[in-house]
Bifunctional NAD(P)H-hydrate repair enzyme (Haoranjiania flava), 493 residues
Amino acid sequence: MQAIISAVQMHLADEYTITHEPVTLFDLMERASAAFVKCFRKDFDDRGLRLAVFCGPGNNGGDGLAIARMLINSGYLNTAVYKINFSPNQSEDNKTNEALLKKMHAPVRYIYKAEDMQFIAADVLIDAVLGSGLNKPLSGEYAQLAQKINAINIPVYAVDIPTGLPADGGVDENYNGIRAQKTITFQRPKFNFFLPESLAATQEFEVVNIGLDEDYIQSLPAGHYLLEEKDIRKILPPRKRFSHKGTYGHALLICGQPQTMGAALLCASGCIHAGAGLVTACIPGSGLTALNASLPEAMYLPRDIGQITSTAEDYKVVAIGCGLDTNDESKVLLEKALEMQTQLVIDADAINLLAKDKNLLDKLPPGTILTPHIKEFDRLFGNHTSWHSRLQTAVGEAFSRRLTIVLKNQYTFICHSDKKIYINPTGNPAMAQGGMGDVLTGIIAGLLAQKLSPLHAAWAGCYLHGKAGDRLARNSYVVKASALAEQVAKEMK
Ligand SMILES: NC(=O)C1=CN([C@@H]2O[C@H](COP(=O)(O)OP(=O)(O)OC[C@H]3O[C@@H](n4cnc5c(N)ncnc54)[C@H](O)[C@@H]3O)[C@@H](O)[C@H]2O)[C@@H](O)CC1
Ligand SMILES: [K+]
């Protein structure tokens, strides 16, 4: 998995690479700029485009100047360079790149005040004003410049980071920086790109490698990690010779009401397709026919506390909450589940029940997995006005209560008791439909039944769920939860 390092650590990686390899900062800037141009050309192949490259005073601006040179050299002859000179500061490599550009007789226009900026006749604008060196929110001339750039209605491609967006530490709800269509970022995505608020700063991002020392980057103490396919492959349980259904564990799913039986069925389907040896659905009797018809592999347990208690020892994992309602009967079921001393997955209405009665929250056994979406999370742990603060709460609660909190979103954040946040990269908006969360709960329960640790079950569950969704979204506008559950088994192969 990739360590998502901070802007400060990225700077260290930069220095480390320069000290330990025969490269200079200027060489790194060349590499970064060449990588940007390569990526940019994939999206804009037309050499006749009018490009406006805005370059600031530091190394981000240095990249911009080098990018302009490379674009002109590769035939984008309508490239105009705007050099932002709000202060006399200029980094060394910025100076070198400015000189190289001038040697080519490329016209460089200087902007000393935001109001100097006249009408820009361009098809695409490249933002290399400020990058990871941002050390305070934009104000004064820079804020005005950002406003003026945003008012030009053309696509903006940001170099490394949109000007005004910090790399980490949250995004201001009144983001006043440059709004990019795409950001081509160096070596690592920046943590803030994963927060929904960053959409104001960039619609999308692409990471390009610039050859910084990977071993060093991975050795840095990071609080955030981005999951990769190889991490998941390593932890998936193998189907062994001579194994049988008992080998792969028994999951009990306490889910569903007569009017939300689909949630229980989808959860059971996720669990079956993730490979649990046995799946028992504890659902209202009115759902039995549907269960037998749609999932003949699943067994049925009536909603009877006596029967649940007497079979408690059979289960490796209990998942509770999908379509459960928050009525008194459901509360009793949750109380029972909390006493069962098995691995627990708590979702949906079971989370809402915890929110209603904080005494129950305090009874969660260590190792429990919670799978809230944003509203369930805020009901449980209080309202948050930003994702940054929500994640801080999630990390704190996961640590102090020894939980794994799967905070669902476009990029799901898995906050674990080790105080780290694991980011799941898979998934897409075609999956935004009812029932998806129920399938995820089932998948995680299925993996826990197969003896994965809570953390590994959360990693693999989220990754596979999103990957199945990505595969299905290639040929479909929306992805149905039931189809996704079936796809999961194929992704695990
Ligand atoms: N990390 C790396 O390994 C590499 C980084 N490179 C580039 O270098 C960039 C970072 O460069 P720098 O550290 O020079 O910083 P920037 O170019 O982002 O910023 C330049 C300077 O602007 C000033 N500044 C910051 N915030 C401001 C604000 N709100 N208002 C007014 N002035 C402000 C600061 O004094 C800062 O040093 C990266 O984003 C990337 O584009 C690449 O050139 C190559 C390698
Ligand atoms: K930038």
About this structure: Residues 10-11, 14, 28-29, 32, 56-63, 91, 130-136, 138, 142, 159-161, 186, 210, 212 surround NAX (ligand 1) (CB under 6 Å).
